[in-house]
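User: Sequence recovery, please. Input:
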């Protein structure tokens, strides 16, 4: 597993997945927003700032869970005993004007407020897209995904704007004992261009696209291993991988099946940020419905 490290101060934000599979962002020298939850002193066994991840993962006070932490009262770059000041309700970094080498701030990615992506149907049909949280989804405009949004297989939430609202809901949704959200279905306005409902799915290993076309549906399957990077909101994009023609009941050419193999690689070097590399490969095969089924 990759290690979260700090070797200098700055306003750069780094992504990290801890031992509990919780996705964090951290800043070396900054502060963490939010209200004070509780302070974990060095006497509790804080060996370095990295211990704050575990304390945040496992600390709840009343109805408030930990949204992030601030390592302070310690040594330079958190490489020794110090205090983990746990926060709740935090969704942004703080104290970024005056940085300190004895501070390291961490925030759970699911709590960080970001604008929704701006994908549109039918342009993203059969495309693999990367949302603002670095998650990959395979899209199908006009199609539902398998699985029921009940207490066993998912959750129903409202999309106030359009289908793009569903990405953040799925990125942060988890059912204890069953795992993370594996896909969603939007149901509302034609091409998802308006308010509606997001049906979050936790079907394992992954949902599939249903075969009945409905213009008011947008379906998305979250691709395994898609936490490859955490791009800024402006870098959300659709890849150019095409799974085939849009299945319709017109006389246009109609594919019998389609498949995609997508590979993402990223690397960086230098002291800031620390050297790292990652590669994600995803393969998906989808057989569209026959004309008779349409």
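Assistant: Recovered sequence (294 residues):
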């Amino acid at each position: 597993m990759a290690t979260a490290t700090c070797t200098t101060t700055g306003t750069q934000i780094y992504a990290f997945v801890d031992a509990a599979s919780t996705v964090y962002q951290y800043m070396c020298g900054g502060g963490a927003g939010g209200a004070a939850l509780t302070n974990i002193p060095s006497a509790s066994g804080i060996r370095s700032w990295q211990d704050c991840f575990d304390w945040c993962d496992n600390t709840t006070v009343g109805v408030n869970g930990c949204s992030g932490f601030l390592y302070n009262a310690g040594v330079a770059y958190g490489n020794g005993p110090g205090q983990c000041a746990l926060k709740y309700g935090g969704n942004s970094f703080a104290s970024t004007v005056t940085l300190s080498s004895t501070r390291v701030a961490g925030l759970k990615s699911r709590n960080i407020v970001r604008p929704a992506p701006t994908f549109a149907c039918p342009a993203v049909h059969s495309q693999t897209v990367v949302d603002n949280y670095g998650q990959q989804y395979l899209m199908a405009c006009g199609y539902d995904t398998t699985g029921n949004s009940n207490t066993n297989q998912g959750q129903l939430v409202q999309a106030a704007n359009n289908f793009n609202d569903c990405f953040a809901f799925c990125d942060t949704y988890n059912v204890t004992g069953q795992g993370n959200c594996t896909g969603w279905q939007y149901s509302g306005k034609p091409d998802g261009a308006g308010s509606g409902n997001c049906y979050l799915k936790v079907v394992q290993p992954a949902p599939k696209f249903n075969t009945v076309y409905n213009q008011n549906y947008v379906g998305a399957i979250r691709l395994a291993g898609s936490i490859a990077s955490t791009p800024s909101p402006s870098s959300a994009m659709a890849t150019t991988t095409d799974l085939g023609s849009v299945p319709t009941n017109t006389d246009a050419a109609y594919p019998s099946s389609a498949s995609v193999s997508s590979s993402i690689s990223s690397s960086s070097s230098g002291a800031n940020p620390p050297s790292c590399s990652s590669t994600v490969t995803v393969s998906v095969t989808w057989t569209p419905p026959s004309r008779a089924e349409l």
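The chain has two domains: 14-111, 128-286.
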